[in-house]
TrEMBL record:
It comes from the Bacteria. Its EC number is 3.2.2.n1. GO terms for molecular function: AMP nucleosidase activity. This is Cytokinin riboside 5'-monophosphate phosphoribohydrolase. It comes from Chromobacterium violaceum (strain ATCC 12472 / DSM 30191 / JCM 1249 / CCUG 213 / NBRC 12614 / NCIMB 9131 / NCTC 9757 / MK). The keyword Hydrolase applies. Transmembrane segments: none annotated. It holds the Pfam family Lysine_decarbox. One of its GO terms (cellular component) is cytosol. It catalyses: AMP + H2O = D-ribose 5-phosphate + adenine.
């Protein structure tokens, strides 16, 4: 267990590697209401371990977070958790991980997880998951990083997100090319394949509606 080093507010992250050595998981600290969510978390953790990919996540022992971590560990994989002190104090931290890093703040937690990862995947979750996913997408939009961002659509959970993004594009709030900054897939192997082949695109964030 180590205490996280201080991290600047804005971090320029490592280049994406073709071979994904580590993937950061965003997902719920609850299990949700469908068995497909739990199964997706277990398959995710096991698949990463089988492919020699380190799982980086928020260090929780509960919900989909705990299921994914346990599955990876049981399959012989490496799991790195990052958690702020105040959450560890609430006894939700998984103490059986390969590495456990303690940070002072939530922002330091997210920055460290991003630094440790070659890509990001979101499974179903709540506000915390949405926050992590949208922040890492915003960093991609602003060219803070150029790593692939995937969304695993277990049980059709993220279909409303697809519709929301399309609506934001049609209403002029998101440049059309920014849709390519992430990918929604129901099939994990297909999502991992896309991430390995990902080529970042650079589209101006600010739209000139007078010219569109």
């Amino acid at each position: 267990m180590t205490r996280g080093r201080k991290i600047p507010a804005l971090v320029f992250l490592r280049e994406t590697e073709k071979k994904m050595k580590s993937i950061c998981l965003f997902c719920g600290s609850n299990k949700g209401g469908k068995p497909e969510y739990e199964e997706a978390a277990r398959v995710f953790g096991r698949t990463l371990a089988e492919q020699g990919i380190t799982l980086v996540y928020g260090a929780g022992k509960v919900g989909l977070m705990g299921l994914a971590a346990d599955a990876a560990l049981e399959a012989g994989g490496k799991v790195i958790g990052v958690i702020p002190e105040f959450l560890k104090a609430k006894e939700v931290a998984h103490l059986g991980l390969t590495e456990l890093h303690i940070t002072e703040t939530m922002h330091q937690r997210k920055a460290m997880m991003a630094q440790l990862s070659d890509g990001f995947i979101a499974l179903p979750g709540g506000f915390g998951t949405f926050d992590e996913l949208f922040e890492i997408l915003t960093w991609a939009q602003l060219s803070v990083h150029n790593k692939p961002v995937g969304v695993l659509d277990a049980g059709g959970f993220y279909q409303p997100l697809r519709a929301l993004v399309e609506h934001a594009v049609s209403e002029g709030f998101v440049p059309k090319g920014n849709q390519d900054l992430f990918r929604i897939e129901r099939d994990l192997p297909a999502l991992l394949s896309w991430m390995r082949q990902y080529q970042p695109s650079h589209v101006a964030k600010w739209l000139d509606l007078a010219r569109t």
